[in-house]
Design brief:
Number of strands: 12
Helix content: 25-40%
Shape: globular
Number of helices: 10
Largest sheet: 5 strands, mixed
CATH superfamily of the largest domain: ATPase, nucleotide binding domain
CATH topology of the largest domain: Nucleotidyltransferase, domain 5
Structural class: alpha/beta
Strand order of the largest sheet: 3-2-1-4-7
Radius of gyration: 20 Å
């Protein structure tokens, strides 16, 4: 029986899963990234973790390939990591090639938002659909567009940068250099910053959502503003590409109950009625499993090439 490995490479942690032929995660590992130690160190520790989870293989089982979701920018064709601001120790490296040579296995690598989108599309909230837009809300905001079953990359490999769509031209300065990006409203740090501006208290984005659920006025205003901004972005995307299903993932998506009512009202306000009537916005059903299962999907494709 053939198994694959799915890897979620993050700025602070690396999550790894052994995926069965039935697309079930049968073993997991989690380690610190420690990218500052350099490429050889990161590759070596990933190889050690793969060896460790191999103990869960059934008799006769084997690992056929490895898939990786990595923070962007990446070159999904060459498998190279490009200039990663938060991971300078492994920036501008041929990550896929080095790992493949170390493991003597096929390896596929793509942007982490696109990989998580593949997981949700094939095994989660998008299952059975032909097209879907996935928006991941966390420390940053990323997105991926799947149309007729295929990821859209664009001519410069940057399709899906919904986090840097302008939803308020007069809004706060974004780290990308623009103003009023979606990320300045709905990321975890943005929720925390906006709440601090409104109340003077420094708490996490998750705590802002909790206080909103409890009915605190300042927290409610922050979450409603975030939902409104999310809805403007969804409306713009729906009007542009006419895709109906939007799946919201990432840590901030745990506050979907606080975000979606305002988002849906905003979608209705900023798009044609014929479009908004068909838009569906759902929270991720896979959570942290989405990038692992999406990476496994990539790995299976790589093993067949």
């Amino acid at each position: 029986m053939s198994h694959v490995i799915g890897i979620d490479l993050g700025g602070s942690k690396i999550a790894l899963g052994l995926i069965s032929p039935r697309d079930e995660i049968i073993a997991r590992r989690r380690i610190e990234t420690r990218a500052d130690a350099g490429l050889a160190s990161v590759i070596g520790r990933i190889a050690s973790e793969i060896e460790a989870v191999s103990a869960a293989l059934p008799p006769g089982g084997r690992i056929d390939a490895v898939g990786i979701g990595a923070p962007g920018p990446v070159d999904h064709i060459s498998g190279d990591l490009l200039t990663l601001v938060n991971l300078p120790g492994i920036s501008n490296t041929p990550f896929r090639r080095v790992l493949s040579e170390r493991l003597a296995l096929p390896v596929a690598l793509d942007h982490d938002a696109k990989v998580a989108a593949l997981g949700e599309f094939h095994y989660g909230a998008g299952r059975g659909r032909k097209s879907m837009i996935y928006i991941v809300l966390g420390t940053g905001v990323g997105a991926a567009i799947i149309y007729e079953g295929a990821l859209l990359y664009g001519e410069g490999n940057s399709a899906g940068e919904a986090g840097h769509m302008t939803v308020d031209p007069d809004g706060a300065r974004c780290h990308c250099g623009s103003r009023g990006c979606l990320e300045t409203f709905v990321s975890g740090p943005a929720l925390s910053r906006r709440y601090a501006e409104a109340s003077g208290a420094a708490i996490s984005g998750g705590e802002v959502a909790g206080r909103a659920r409890a009915g605190e006025p300042a927290a409610l205003r922050v979450m409603r503003g975030a939902g409104r901004a999310l809805g403007i972005a969804i409306a713009s995307l729906a009007m542009t590409v006419n895709i109906e299903l939007f799946v919201i993932g990432g840590g901030v998506a745990q506050a979907a109950d606080m975000l979606l009512p305002a988002a849906l009202a905003s979608v209705k306000q900023y798009s044609f009625r014929a479009v908004s009537a068909r838009v569906r916005v759902r929270a991720s059903t896979l959570g942290e499993a989405a990038p692992l299962l999406g990476a496994a999907y990539l790995a299976r494709a790589a093993s067949q090439q």
